[in-house]
Amino acid sequence: MSFYLYSLFTNIREYFMQPWKTLSREILLQPDSGRFLTVENHQVQLSDGSIIQNWPWLITPDFVNVVVETEEGDFLCFRQTKYAVDGVTLAIVGGYLEPGEDPLAAAQREVLEETGYVADEWSALGGYAIDGNRGCGNGHLFLARGARYVRPIDADDLEEQTLIRLNRDELRAALMQGKFRVMPWSTAVAMALLKMEAE
Amino acid sequence: MSFYLYSLFTNIREYFMQPWKTLSREILLQPDSGRFLTVENHQVQLSDGSIIQNWPWLITPDFVNVVVETEEGDFLCFRQTKYAVDGVTLAIVGGYLEPGEDPLAAAQREVLEETGYVADEWSALGGYAIDGNRGCGNGHLFLARGARYVRPIDADDLEEQTLIRLNRDELRAALMQGKFRVMPWSTAVAMALLKMEAE
């Protein structure tokens, strides 16, 4: 089959690849006015027309994570605890979007708050659904390069953090050894390394 | 400061970097006997001793995702819809662990069910908490190489899927263009590319 015919076939098939439809939704749980979590039940119609009456759906705030490279070529990371992780993990800059905040603006705000650095060169590494089935927010990932120190750290994080600097080889080794133990952090570091290597 | 002193300092500091303590937990919501979701409220004590009375915690099943490379050097992917994503997305093999199932066994089962392939060369790409604050399950990522077709697809997925083959350059381009729109899929593809390039 020629590539043209294959593409045509794929396009036609995707045209008829119907997304599931949300027939109704109700809030099951919304602690603290939904500041950090709303749980909904969705009635969902699948592509074949069949209906699932009880499909749990999670709404949590969208967030950003940022891989920050300094002017000197070091990457700003943290050693810290995190509630979902046993022991200590490596981490990168990140935080929730404020209501209505643009992801890039949130990323720049978090870098300044958590590290005291500002950067001029920003690359988007994509926005991704955290849980393809239940939602659970979207993560917006960025690479910031050429970062320079401008003021002391002013973070509002609840965890203890120690800022550390890794060179690119150390960053890659830590990633491949599984030391970034929360998935969006590993995603951002991996995407950043692939992007920098492609340049 | 010498590297030895720095390491000593870091180790001492991490020794005193206390994880948060779960003082109590109660189930708030457990639809369908918790098959896909349990929502808990945790009373949490932070490192500084202060207490948060209401910390929502999500329990969803752990899952696997697998980047599968065939004997011919093609990567097995899908075009499909996914409830948390608008439109069509690229995807990779994946699914929930059965109760008590080992992640590698689940990964091998899912590859066979979803693609009809088996592979002999397996590499672990790490296990990660999905949401560092709220849990929401752990994802176990794998790279399977040298995969060969042994039997027809026998998938139990609810979504329509079209199996496609991408070469390594196409896989990388699709990743960097954000076409894998669910985070664990992008993570696995990025980690797999970094691992293959390091070899």
**Low confidence ranges of chain A:** none
C-alpha-based Rg of chain A, rounded: 20 Å
By secondary-structure content and strand pairing, the structural class of chain A works out as alpha+beta
What is the average of the pLDDT values of chain A? 93
* Most extensive interface, chain pair and sizes: A-B, 72 and 72 residues
CATH level-4 homologous superfamily of the largest domain in chain A: Nucleoside Triphosphate Pyrophosphohydrolase
Task: Please identify the top-level CATH class of the largest domain in chain A.
Answer: Alpha Beta
What's the helix count of chain A? 4
SSE run of chain A: HEEEEEEEHEEEEHH
If you had to describe this structure to a student in words, what would you say it looks like?
- 2 copies of one chain form a homodimer.
- With 199 residues, chain A is an alpha+beta fold.
- The first copy, chain A, folds into 2 domains: 3-59, no CATH class; 63-198, Nucleoside Triphosphate Pyrophosphohydrolase (Alpha-Beta Complex).
- In chain A, helix 3 (168-176) crosses helix 4.
- Chain A contains 4 helices and 11 strands, in the order αβββββββαββββαα.
- At the A-B interface, helix 1, strand 2, strand 3, strand 5 and strand 6 of A face helix 1, strand 2, strand 3, strand 5 and strand 6 of B.
